[in-house]
Specification:
By secondary structure, the chain is α/β, with parallel strands linked by helices. 47% of the residues lie in helices and 13% in strands. It has a single domain, classed as Rossmann fold (3-Layer(aba) Sandwich). The chain has eight helices and seven strands. The protein has a seven-stranded parallel sheet with strand order 3-2-1-4-5-6-7, with helices on both faces. The structure holds NADP nicotinamide-adenine-dinucleotide phosphate. The site of NADP nicotinamide-adenine-dinucleotide phosphate (NAP) has 28 residues, from helix 1.
Length: 252
């Protein structure tokens, strides 16, 4: 993947890890970055800083009409970064109904899937290009207490592997990023070590350059994968104990 001079679309590019991707792509020499955002004014700070290279695109990844419109605008992309994500901070059993779990599935699974389908022709026209799906350690290990988030990322990881096989014939690199804990609004409630979003963006670009299928971006992701390989049942018990301790602490 030649990032220099490429044109990219980053979903949820207005803040957090998505914004870090936008900045990292421009710093690496990308020609143009479409910044997918639910509210166009939220991308104005990026447009002001890089008026010739940033193109804000109204894109709620749960809205098929906006996905279709983005596909007809972003016909020149060689890279799709499926970064937009939702974590509703509910539990599967404690939530009043399935609204949160369904929304997490819509944003974290169906959204990226629809974007892959809609943008695959553009990538093919660029000789194959690449898709980078921003996933989570919760896609490797079922993390209780995070509601539908972990199941939605499991589904997205499975889809990533299937899409890689389905798009191999058109030469599209499909990469999964396994992300641990990052200092963004999504993880504002999380205590302990959190990576800077720039670290994740740099790991993502490195994975693209090396054409890697799946990469752990930070120490938490690496440790989760190692713990899973060592003893999956012990990891499951440990995560359940952590959930119990959190409940005692927060009353949730
Ligand atoms: N932070 C972490 O510890 C962590 C760990 C593992 C994986 N990740 C993953 O990293 C990705 C980025 O998360 P982040 O940490 O940067 O979180 P964030 O700061 O909360 O940003 C989330 C981004 O997704 C956008 N978004 C949410 N729902 C959307 C929708 N329906 N359509 C389009 N955009 C939508 C948000 O837009 P608005 O500004 O309009 O709300 C925002 O741009 C997500 O896929 C997340 O699951 C994060």
């Amino acid at each position: 993947m030649d990032i220099q001079h490429c044109t990219a679309l980053v979903t949820g590019g207005n803040r957090g890890i998505g914004e870090a991707f936008v900045r990292a792509l421009l710093a690496a020499g990308a020609r143009k970055v479409y910044v997918g955002t639910r509210h166009l004014p939220d991308a104005e700070h990026l447009l002001r800083a890089h008026p010739d290279q940033i193109v804000p695109v109204a894109l709620d990844v749960t809205d098929p009409a906006q996905i279709a419109a983005a596909a007809s605008t972003c016909t020149d992309i060689a890279l799709l970064v499926n970064n937009a994500g939702a974590f509703l901070n509910q539990t599967l059993m404690g939530a009043p109904d399935l609204t949160a779990a369904r929304l997490e599935m819509e944003v974290n699974y169906f959204g990226p899937l629809q974007l892959c389908r809609a943008l695959a022709p553009a990538l093919r026209a660029q000789g194959g290009g690449a898709i980078l799906n921003v996933l989570s350690a919760g896609a490797l290990v079922a993390v209780p207490g995070m509601g539908g988030y972990s199941p939605s990322k499991f589904a997205a990881r499975a889809a990533t592997n299937c899409i890689r096989a389905e798009l191999a014939a058109q030469g599209t690199q499909v990469t999964a990023l396994i992300v641990g804990s990052v200092d963004t609004r999504m993880a504002a409630h999380v205590e302990g070590r959190k990576e800077h979003p720039d670290t994740i963006a740099q790991a993502g670009l490195a994975a693209l350059r090396k054409r890697q299928d799946e990469v752990d971006t930070d120490i938490m992701a690496v440790e989760m994968r190692a713990a899973l390989a060592r003893d999956p049942k012990a990891l499951e018990r440990s995560l359940a104990r952590q959930l119990g301790a959190t409940r005692l602490h927060t009353g949730r």
